[in-house]
């Protein structure tokens, strides 16, 4: 069974990224895997959380908005506060970074790695593992390469074990902190692998498993373990993105499936829609519930909350309708161009209008998205 603690910096996927000035990371989730057997209780805690730097990825109608690092000079302070909090609560910390080494993610990876080195100590260790480069989209068994790099930390810091009387026989003295960009899909696969290895250790310790025995050799236990972690990943993903986790078929079945790949495609499209056209309102609701925005009867709307300029008339359905209408008239005029050359110029005019409107929407994508109106994101 699981005990789950959800994030300090709560919010939706693209409106809550990175960490705040106090070092609290977005989508920070503590997961405790608990096993009870023959009067003994064993548990193992892992955490996940967004890269603890000041960065954003604001929706702008593109499928993958650009990453923006902010206040570079404050990065060491924010990251140090984050790891100080982890060390006080859990002991030693192993940060496993799964993001891509190149591209937009690469900038975050480089900044994270270089900043960690400034605060590194005997209790803080950083390991980068380019999940997509090593594992691709189907070879998740290659995570064994990562496990070989971190197994010494896990062996040293152990897990919690209580006997029949509730007396502590063994104590967990450190934590594995895993992150990708969303801390969902790649993180789910990786944490389930670590959780599986730890459960096997615990079962061997209690004499249930032999030295070489594994969970996969017990079909019923293997299926239940996979379902437990797959459901866990889906729950975390749903509260952060609005959809179940991607790559969930590997966690649930132990391998990628054609149906799972199709489901991932659908969920990726659904995430795009929710991120761009729904999550702003959902973020407002979260901020209201958390008290980040206090409603007052005598409080007038601030000027910053009022729509101004292009934002006051921005409507994606209207813009899309105008673009399609323009192309329709362009095609109609082009068909008439063989009889009257003036229709050819009309066709160019309508096409130009459509392209111009599309260019305005593309250049001002953020204005056409559903954004929070109450508690503005940090800048």
UniProtKB/TrEMBL annotation:
Q: Does the keyword Transmembrane helix apply?
A: yes
Mark the transmembrane ranges: 313-332, 344-363
GO-annotated biological processes: phosphatidylinositol dephosphorylation
Q: Which UniProt keywords apply?
A: Membrane, Transmembrane, Transmembrane helix
InterPro entries noted in UniProt: SAC_dom (IPR002013)
Q: Name one GO molecular function term.
A: phosphatidylinositol-4-phosphate phosphatase activity
Question: According to its record, what are the GO cellular component terms?
Answer: endoplasmic reticulum
Per the record, the domain of life is Eukaryota
Record domain SAC: where: 11-242
Q: Which residues form a coiled coil?
A: none
List, alphabetically, the Pfam families matched: Syja_N
Q: Under what name is this protein listed?
A: SAC domain-containing protein
The lineage is:
Eukaryota, Viridiplantae, Streptophyta, Embryophyta, Tracheophyta
